């Protein structure tokens, strides 16, 4: 039983499934709901709000499923769930559509602000997002830092990484607000509002997620690069054990593949010589 619980806890989120439930399905429902209902229920008048609620149900159900299967959640996923909830409230109660822009900007802004505030606490969020046991062999690195009396120097690196991480969410805040302002114009609770929300959701990944991810990756590179300089560890030695094992398995498979190809080539040459 203990092993099963541990396996559940270590189960990783499937990014493909996440994109399907959080982006693809909601976009399709929001953009096609009116046409589908008109085709199959021509005599029924179905409110656009109903389509909005159905679309938002998928990321909501995914959040709950992910929580109960992996038995853990985090600050960012909770903020994302609240964002979905607020979108539904704005649509259902037909609040001014301009609120969407402020709602979209507030989510990454709150996350970025929380990251900065966490620096003043014993549990900085940068340790959860970048310097964590899923990416880095934290115990090994911390041990070497203590041996070399470099803990204080490392803390300064973490602070700089935190500022860079917060910058990624600031970029997301600006892009979210700008995209919502450009695309959302129709009154909430209308089919046009749903169509605009679908376009905004569909564009959110290339327009917002990619630039923000690049800044976040820069923060991660800065952190790893400086830890390598302080500790003298190689990149592979610094990685978490599970990542090292995966890399070893990949290298082993690559060597086996090359060996098979060399044997096949040798066999072909032998046949040709005969």
Characterization of the model:
By secondary structure, this protein is an all-alpha fold. The chain has one domain (2-244). It is 80% helix and 0% strand. It has helices at residues 2-10, 15-40, 48-70, 75-92, 99-117, 126-129, 138-147, 151-183, 191-231, 235-238, 241-273. The longest helix is centred in the last third of the chain and has 41 residues, at 191-231. The N and C termini lie far apart (61 Å).
Concise structural overview:
The chain has 274 residues and is mostly helical. It has helices spanning 2-10, 15-40, 48-70, 75-92, 99-117, 126-129, 138-147, 151-183, 191-231, 235-238, 241-273.
- What is the radius of gyration? 24 Å
Chain-averaged pLDDT: 83
**What does the largest sheet look like?**
none
The DSSP helix count reads: 11
Distance between the termini: 61 Å
Encode the helix/strand succession as letters: HHHHHHHHHHH
Structural class: mainly alpha
Strand % is under 5%
Uncertain segments of ≥5 residues (pLDDT<50)?
Answer: 1-9
Task: Tell me the total number of β-strands.
Answer: 0
């Amino acid at each position: 039983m203990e092993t099963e619980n541990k396996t559940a806890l270590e189960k990783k989120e499937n990014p493909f499934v996440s994109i399907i439930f959080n982006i693809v399905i909601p976009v399709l429902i929001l953009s096609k709901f009116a046409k589908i209902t008109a085709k199959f229920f021509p005599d029924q008048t179905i409110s656009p709000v109903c389509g909005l609620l159905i679309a938002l149900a998928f990321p909501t159900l995914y959040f709950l499923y992910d929580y109960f299967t992996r038995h853990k959640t985090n600050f960012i996923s909770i903020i994302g769930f609240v964002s979905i909830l607020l979108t539904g409230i704005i649509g259902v109660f037909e609040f001014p559509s301009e609120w969407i822009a402020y709602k979209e900007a507030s989510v990454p802004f709150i996350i970025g602000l929380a990251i900065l505030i966490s620096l003043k606490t014993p549990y900085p969020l940068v340790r959860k997002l970048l310097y964590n046991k899923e990416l880095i062999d934290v115990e090994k690195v911390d041990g070497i830092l203590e041996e070399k009396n470099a803990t204080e120097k490392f803390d300064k690196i973490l602070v700089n990484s935190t500022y860079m991480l917060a910058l990624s969410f600031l970029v997301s805040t600006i892009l979210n607000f700008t995209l919502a302002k450009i695309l959302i114009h129709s009154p909430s609770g209308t089919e046009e509002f749903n169509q605009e929300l679908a376009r905004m959701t569909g564009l959110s990944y290339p327009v917002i997620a990619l630039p923000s991810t690049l800044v976040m990756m820069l923060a991660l590179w800065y952190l790893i690069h400086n830890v390598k300089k302080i500790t003298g560890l190689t990149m592979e030695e610094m990685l978490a054990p599970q990542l090292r094992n995966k890399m070893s398995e990949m290298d082993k498979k690559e060597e086996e593949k090359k060996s098979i190809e060399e044997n096949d080539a040798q066999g072909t040459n032998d046949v040709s010589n005969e």
